[in-house]
What does this fold into?
Amino acid sequence: MATFDYAPAPESPAIVDIQPSYGLYIGGEMVDPIDGSRFKTVNPATEEVLSEVAAAGPTDVDRALAAARAAYDGTWSRLSGRDRGKYLYRLARLVQERARELAVLESIDNGKPIRESRDVDVPLVAAHFFYYAGWADKLGYAGFGPDPRPLGVAAQVIPWNFPLLMLAWKIAPALACGNTVVLKPAETTPLSALAFADICRQADLPPGVVNIITGAGDTGRALVEHPGVDKVAFTGSTEVGRQIARSVAGTRKKTTLELGGKAANVVFDDAPLDQAVEGIVNGIFFNQGHVCCAGSRLLVQESVADELLDRLKRRLGTLRLGDPLDKNTDIGAINSAEQLDKIRMLSEVGESEGAERWSPPCDLPDRGFWFPPTVFTGVAQSHRIAREEIFGPVLSVLTFRTPAEAIDKANNTPYGLSAGVWTDKGSRILWMAQKLRAGVVWANTFNRFDPASPFGGYKESGFGREGGRHGLAGYLDV
Ligand code: NDP
It folds into this structure.
């Protein structure tokens, strides 16, 4: 049979200007760390060093928080909502103007396919700033009283899976409500946050309203534990979320935690199977499965399990893995060597516990961090691959017979961030949505995001909501 290969369609990296080294963005300027050190950030698709980045030490954290406090007291909390909104609109428009550069930079530093950074991440970043710009002068109509007040200075720590998007989820509502921020991006993906620092400068944002300090976990800890913080917003692992919850207990710091997930994607026998296959692929292979709300557990009704799996495997055979900057790429690089080790380890545990492992034929590049799309069948609820967040392109398949069994299995997890339901029956969708203990339930779709829609978890997936009107509450004294 003739095969038709795709010709390479690489996006040019020439549009980004990565500097050999970066300082910290404090008080509206890039400054060298006082007591910090430096670390390298690499391209996960090639292992090539991209830049050297500052790791902020405790004095740098002090300095950033002092700048945020001065900006809060001196300018930002005194501006009208209308004027704050103007700045947010300006940030949104600059993100749009620099969209291509930001998408390429994100793909280079993170490893995600350009198709995703270009069509999902960056448009959503702009949409978040536009959305919260619209709220800035309407807070009195948001249902929190006539004149809700901001909290003060927010410490924001974000992960590496959606670096710029998580920055937008954190910064846009904080600023709209009148807070100032110090944000720490993840160690492996600092570059798009540093590009955003340049956007703040371009927007003439008053100095100190947004401060970006790079660094590793120690910097994050120093930031959230600092007494000069009024609000902590964290997205990342449940383990670090627990540490943060302990550190803020007994303080006045208002906290939102968006942690891990092990979402069930439930397919009933009346679902349109081809559509469900696309939803399953999008649910777990989008962003290499580095998604807290990924549909990592497929629950399929037994009567259609064989047919669905056949179609799914055929579809996975068509996914293209490789250069994140190639516009044809579906699956990019794993973000770091550590994450690759974790995915490998849990996949080996899956096999040793008795599940059956399958991947399509797939050539992995010689350099960089790669893992093929992988499906485990014969998975029991007790298996670690059914319980723990793998955070990689690995799907665990379980079956069920009745809707009640689907609910029991879907809810049998310490997490509760998201879920998917595939069925032809509207009444069943509503029944499932009521019973599923998940912050977001998608019906006949998966991994859809909109700034107007609140997002957040139950149980060990954290608390508080980001996005929508609900997302304002985390940044107001209400
Ligand atoms: P972490 O939770 O460690 O990282 C999230 C952010 O918190 C990063 O900016 C990190 O810095 C920072 N951080 C680390 N330790 C502390 C601390 N004690 N106090 C304050 N901030 C801290 O996630 P990892 O990157 O280590 O990933 C581990 C696992 O977590 C993954 O395998 C995945 O399962 C899960 N995860 C879940 C995410 C989600 O959205 N639900 C997102 C990311 C990971 P630094 O990057 O420098 O360590």
